[in-house]
Design goal:
Largest sheet of chain A: 10 strands, parallel
Number of helices of chain B: 12
Order of helices and strands of chain B: EEHEHEHEHEHHEEHHEHEHEEHEEEEEH
Number of strands of chain A: 26
Distance between the termini of chain A: 34 Å
Low-confidence stretches of chain B: none
Mean pLDDT of chain A: 97
Number of strands of chain B: 17
Strand order of the largest sheet of chain B: 2-1-15-14-13-3-4-11-12
Largest interface: A-B, 63 and 61 residues
Structural class of chain B: alpha/beta
Distance between the termini of chain B: 30 Å
Oligomer: heterodimer
Amino acid sequence: MLIRITGGRVVDPVHGRDAVGDVWIEDDRVVEAPAGREPDRVVDASGCVVMAGAIDVHSHIAGGNVILSRLLLPELAASEIPSPELHPFATARGSGAEIGASYARMGYTTVIEPALPPASALATHLELADIPVIDRGALTVLGNDDLLLGLLRDRESAQAVQDLVALSIASSRGLGVKVINAGGAAAFKEGAVQFALDDEVPSYGLTSRRILTALLDAVEAIGVPHPLHVHTNNLGLPGSDDSLVATMEAAEGRRIHFAHAQFYAYAAREGGGFASAAPRICEALARHPNATLDVGQVVFGQTCTISLDILRQFVGRKGANPKKWILVAGDAEGGGLVPFAYRRRGATSALQFAIGLELMLLSPDPWRVLLTTDHPNGGPFTAYPRLIHLLMDKEERDRELSTIHPVVFERSSLAAIAREFSLAEVAIMTRAAPARLLGLPDRGHLGPGARADVAVYRDGRDRTAMFAVAETVLKDGRTVVEAGEVVDARAGVTLNLAVDADAGMASRVDAYMARRFGSGLDAFGVPREAFADRDVFRTQPCLT
Amino acid sequence: MSAWIRGQAVDVPAAVDAAAASLSGARAPVIAGLAADVDALRAAFALGARLGASFDPVSAAHLYADLAVLAGAGTVTTTPSETIARADLVVAVGARAAASSILDIVRSTEPTIGRARTRTVMLLREGGGPNSNERSFAVAPGEVAPALALVRALATGRQRLDHPLAPLAEALPKALYGVLLYDPGEIGELAVEMLQGLAAELNETTRVFTLPLADSWQGRALLQVSAWTTGTAPRLGLGRGFPEHDPWRFDAGRQAREKEIDAVMWLASVDAPRPDWVATVPSVALVRAPDGREGDVVFAVAAPGEDGDGVLWDERRGALVFRGARAAGAIPGAAAIVRAIDGAVAARRAA
């Protein structure tokens, strides 16, 4: 099948394109304009903007804690819209089918679940596989498990740590590695309610810094394309900007990605409370070209915060709204779920909202500051169109600011920022940069050889409307959204990293698992047979 | 022999057609039992969406004792492995917890991770004498929830009484990593709520968690598949084209008594007790090792992890685990049969 998308404004910053032109697709790939051939299908994109499919690097769309959030707040699942026969459960709020359909309608074609605990990897992958239309991936979580902490406590070699990390990625089928408050969950289980970069996990005598740097080294040595994905200590506390900047320094030039940085951009004020630390974070980012971040933008409304950072979630439980919460002391981290309502007229919520936008607008480099809401922690991913609108339109931003708590004028610089994002910058932030960051060279752009994931948006000044519902979306060259409706509920694939696991380490871990869990390494695997006749996984290579 | 219609052996396609006729002709079909592996459950939800069926699992009572508390107030839990590795105090609440295989492991091991070095086991249950080396607290029948309320009041300092339960209440705040082990189906919602509140409060000063035992019928697997497929827990109905969660309305036993349902598909590739009401409505049964009399239309299906592959909840791991067939057999898996019925229903609807 040869397809020509014609007449649209093609925005592809990777190839310097920002003009009306054609995009040609043959089967599942973008191709050069073929000489002397007629297309089998023409997509008229006149009056539209054509971009690569968007990519979300950090969105909690699957896993045990996402399951628990549905059960904790069943009222959020209420929906009385029947699903189309083509796509059962597509209107069932919070279902995998709805997640896939909602992303696809916005032109998103790849989404990364950032929390893949090795102990429950199979369940997470089974759930991911039931999210239709889009491609998925997940990040293996390490940094609080007894196996790794034991190796570090016993001062085993860097090679042993590397072998364990590689084995964990391979057996859990991760696309990268994430660390969540390194050592914090282990310390919480021993009574701690505070834990900073140089605090020790009591029973191991290890600082958070030591765990973090060991993982930074291992990820580099293995050649994981995505940098270590870091949820640092002290999330959400006044002064947490110190934690983020200290962690950035601790990386000592190694590649590092900071998750939901907005939740750390809180400068402590004398007398209590916090002010925006976005300028400081952006200044630090400018000095550390090895670092990237995603924002974790706050969106006003009810949500349920979900995190494997059980220490911080436990401390945050008293802010639960409604007053109920879940804590799971898991095999490594576990999970904390705290419902929260971000209030437009609430000073804290309003300031969080402003800080997220500041981070993006003050960013020294759109390639290194990515749009996320840390769904659902800052708010739902369905807010992306509105957020893009606010980034692109100063007047709209001012209107928004006039409706929220005035503390934002006092404690953030947002109102003074005149910058408006261009479409090219939006394409970088939501397509090209996430693809580069994840090490997925086949997406995020529209050059020949790219995967034919394409979003066509009706151009208009109302960017919220424009980006909320794509005119047409192609996934692997197949039309999955037409006139804003999902027309093909195809199954996407789950991307995972091809990592060689050391046989000696596998044998050692097998024995450990048998002792600790009553069953060996096989019981922690994600075998293809578990998916019956479905072809779910696509492997990505490591860096060489 | 792997399929029957009204007790007569037939080939599988004939039974599939009969099952599709029964289910697609019903105004209010129900899919019940739901004691099966993950893929069979996925197939059941797809069929249910096409039929507009409701869902009621055999594990409902067990699940709801926890779910009601979870949605109402929240929970504080840990895992079997963390209990075994870290706990210095384990309190088994109820007879089933006291007799559980996890408690057997707890009794035979010492903590290996964290602060604790030794372990104490205590039992709180109706009747029952003390075990050697264990402190056993007996309560009158039906008094577990009030006893837990008293323990909570004593442990958190709201009450100061010289009471036989005082030693238990005094031990809990002193635990470094305490675990309250219980079977929700046995002790019920009120006691679960009291246990969860107790654990939540004790975490103000130390670490105490609960560990609910799973049911025997894959209810934990079903809960996950239901939540990610429909956004909600079973019991639920799909008759209006979208999921509606309602534990009373979609109680199939009640529905059968009130004659609200007119067909049932009983899915139990894992052994599960079949309630009497199933025999009161036209039924399609998918069960392991049937004799053909389990329903109007009966299919023999492979048991996951035995003569078929499947992903099942593993109580010791506290996770979903793939179980390959120990011996490959010719009996089809439940997922294949459900999908065949779904295909036949679709064909009937299209005709």
